[in-house]
Amino acid sequence: RIEIHPDFNSDNLHNDVAVLELTTPITYRYHINRVCLPPPDRVHPYGTECIATGWGKDAFDGEKFQVIMKKVALPVVPSDKCQELLRETRLGQFFILDPSFVCAGGEAGQDACTGDGGGPLMCRNPTTGQYELYGMTAWGIGCGIQGNPGVYVNVPYFINWVYGIMQATPEQQQQHNAGPYTK
User: Fold this and answer.
1) Lowest mean pLDDT across 25-39, 46-60, 70-84, 119-133
2) Is residue 17 a contact partner of residue 158, using CB atoms and an 8 Å limit?
3) pTM attached to this predicted model
4) DSSP three-state, residue 68
5) How far is CA 4 from the centre of its chain?
6) Residue 4: CA count within 13 A, CB half-sphere
7) Contact residues for 32 (Cβ-Cβ < 8 A; gap 6+)
8) What is the CATH number of domain 2-175?
């Protein structure tokens, strides 16, 4: 079963999230694991180091996808700062960052890229230290360009919708939440 968010807009990628119900269990391995879900009010401060992973290209115009999954540490960029930075790109001065997105990165050579879409942006829970899924790679202007943060689906923004699809309250889900990813 695939539940696409009812407000998904394919023109601007707002609300670009879906819940998949699998027919067979996942076999967890070193490079295939789960990650905790965040509370709906989770906001990480400017500069919080998060981790993005993926199999995508290492450059926007790169020719090959990765054969080994890569990871990169990226700082969180607050939405107002991200919008300001993205207005300096081809998006222009009237660009408005939708609340369905969060941003990270903006450092030269450090970014998710083509082929990483849907991959995780994981940040540590400030209390437990466990990684939580803060974002999912959505889009960007180029890859790894200084001053151009990457844009990610804002997972906390959608978490109540996700729990509704899963028919579990956040409290019920917390009892069955994914184990810690601490690497």
Assistant:
1) 46-60
2) yes
3) 0.86
4) coil
5) 17
6) 8
7) 26
8) 2.40.10.10
Q: How far apart are CA 74 and CA 51, in angstroms?
A: 6
Strands 101-105 and 120-124: unpaired
Is residue 100 within 8 Å of 158, Cβ to Cβ? yes
Residue 149: what residue type? P
Nearest to 112 by CA among 148, 58, 32, 46: 58
| pLDDT tens per residue, range 137-170 | 999 999 999 999 999 999 999 999 999 988 855 5
Q: Please calculate the CA angle 148-154-155 and round it to the nearest 5 degrees.
A: 140
Q: Is the dihedral of CA 79, 35, 124, 146 positive or negative?
A: negative
> Are 66 and 55 in contact, with CB atoms under 8 Å apart?
yes
Cβ burial of 111 (10 Å; 0-12, 13-18, 19+) is buried
Q: What is the pLDDT of residues 84-141, one digit of tens each?
A: 999 999 999 999 999 999 999 999 989 998 888 899 999 999 999 999 999 999 999 9
Give the domain ranges of the chain: 2-175
